[in-house]
Amino acid sequence: MKFKTALFDFDGVIVDTEPIYDIFWNEAGERYGTGIDNFAAVIKGTTLPYIMEKYFSDRTEEFRRMVINESTEYESTLYRLARVFGITAAELLNLAEARLSHPLKATAHRNEDFLFREINYKNIRCLHGRAGKGSRVSHPNVHRDDYELCWILDGTLRLTLPSESYELSAGQSLQFDALLEHTYEALTDCELLILHIRKENRF
């Protein structure tokens, strides 16, 4: 069977927009004096005309029009702002509601001859490594489709890629595609910092 068309339900499948409306309607429920806790959950899955008829039928036509206009403007403003930053409205809300700080405790592991301490956030992974002279490691960790940046803090290290090889000393760094085959070899006792940076964050 040959398919000519694929149809996807957008909301809730491609993009989750519920959090956008939850924020507006919970605030609206309180601001407009509905007396209903978690108003967004109560009206979830209903239409705007139903909401007006069910919960605001005792208000004036002018008042109901104001609620409709505020809801429409809220949605429009969020989507316009999101387009400016090249993200979805849901992602914009996630950024606005995210914690301003996110502390983590480092974990330690050994990979071949290298000892690493690591912290891992959503968009960046930081590995602080130490190795004795002659130590080697290939593909130092499981890699996503990231950029990898190696910064030598002390000593000298050889970094070998499929068609290139670099000797890096303290203070030098190299960035490359983490999916490439690569090997680290400590030419002296060395200390290094490896960053895995998600490719959508290009800096």
Can you describe what's shown?
By secondary structure, the chain is α+β, with helices and mostly antiparallel strands. It has five helices and ten strands; from the N terminus they run H-H-H-H-H-E-E-E-E-E-E-E-E-E-E. The strands form two sheets. It has a six-stranded antiparallel β-sheet, with no helix packed on it.
Structural features:
single chain; 203 residues; alpha+beta; six-stranded antiparallel sheet; four-stranded antiparallel sheet; 5 helices; 30% helix
Classification by helices and strands: alpha+beta
Beta-strand proportion:
25-35%
Query: In this structure, how is the largest beta sheet organized?
Result: 6 strands, antiparallel
- Strand element count: 10
Mean pLDDT: 82
Put the structure in a nutshell:
With 203 residues, the chain is an alpha+beta fold. The protein has helices spanning 18-31, 39-43, 48-55, 61-85, 89-97, and strands at 107-111, 114-120, 124-131, 136-138, 146-154, 156-160, 165-169, 173-177, 183-186, 190-198.
Give the SSE map.
Layout: H1 18-31, H2 39-43, H3 48-55, H4 61-85, H5 89-97, E1 107-111, E2 114-120, E3 124-131, E4 136-138, E5 146-154, E6 156-160, E7 165-169, E8 173-177, E9 183-186, E10 190-198
Antiparallel strand pairs: 1-2, 2-3, 3-10, 4-9, 5-8, 5-10, 6-7, 6-9
Helix pairs in contact: 1-4, 4-5
